[in-house]
Structure to design on (255 residues):
């Protein structure tokens, strides 16, 4: 059961309208690494989480991601605010008229946001690609899911870093910086959860088999990474095609 608090998680107020910035922010509204993806991914994963602590973590972060979606949607709407303040005859506010006129002949996400979206976000990314559930990562394994969640948070952090660089609006940057730091918090929490699940799921017998620790030393000249990675340091690297006898002998040790 959910309750909605009408107050945003942080105050949001951009300095000035800017349709281009609104289009950029769509990446974190309906994009593959955006807030809609995150809140749905963690929510879906929670149903298969058998550990109560992990399930609660997924639901808690999923719920916060909904609040982040509100922040991004509010930023987009504020950047497009003049559309809502049109003139009596229905024409666009002069502050946006020039940008709108330049887009009416173009098949662009920005045009859709200005003309069709009515001044609010749509479930698309910054290129106009519609949101799809195919970007949600969820398997039947808690460790694989948590690893995917850490990666999702780091990817989102990277997108926010790029948005911060590209959007000089001070009000928007304050919100973006907050969201960026929350991505870091979520990544750290998912990492902690992974550490508590090292002996379950796909990690139960990880590294316990003959081919589990052999480095793929297949470059010429050799990268010599086999000597650098602790997980494979005590095992001979794979340096080329394996013979049938070698495969059979090693796999026989598993049974």
């Amino acid at each position: 059961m959910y309750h909605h608090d009408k107050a945003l998680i942080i105050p949001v107020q951009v300095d000035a309208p800017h349709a281009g910035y609104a289009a950029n922010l769509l990446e974190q509204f309906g994009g593959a690494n955006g807030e809609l993806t995150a809140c749905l991914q963690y929510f879906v994963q929670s149903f298969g989480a058998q550990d109560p602590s992990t399930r609660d973590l997924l639901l808690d972060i999923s719920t916060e991601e909904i609040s982040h979606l509100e922040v991004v949607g509010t930023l987009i709407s504020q950047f497009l605010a003049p559309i809502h303040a049109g003139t009596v005859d229905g024409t666009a506010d002069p502050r946006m008229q020039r940008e709108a006129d330049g887009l009416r002949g173009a098949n662009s996400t920005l045009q859709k946001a200005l003309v069709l979206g009515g001044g609010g976000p749509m479930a698309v990314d910054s290129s106009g690609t519609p949101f799809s559930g195919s970007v949600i990562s969820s398997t039947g394994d808690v460790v694989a899911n948590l690893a995917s969640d850490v990666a999702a948070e780091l990817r989102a952090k990277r997108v926010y870093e790029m948005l911060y660089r590209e959007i000089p609006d001070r009000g928007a940057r304050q919100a973006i910086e907050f969201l960026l730091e929350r991505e870091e918090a979520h990544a750290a929490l998912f990492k902690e959860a992974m550490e508590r699940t090292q002996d379950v799921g796909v990690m139960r017998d990880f590294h316990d088999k003959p081919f589990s620790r052999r480095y793929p030393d297949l470059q010429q000249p050799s990268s010599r990474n086999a000597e650098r990675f602790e997980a494979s340091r005590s095992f001979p690297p794979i340096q080329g095609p394996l013979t049938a006898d070698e495969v059979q002998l090693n796999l026989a040790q598993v049974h």
User: Anything to note?
Assistant: The two ends are 48 Å apart (CA to CA). The chain has a mean pLDDT of 86.
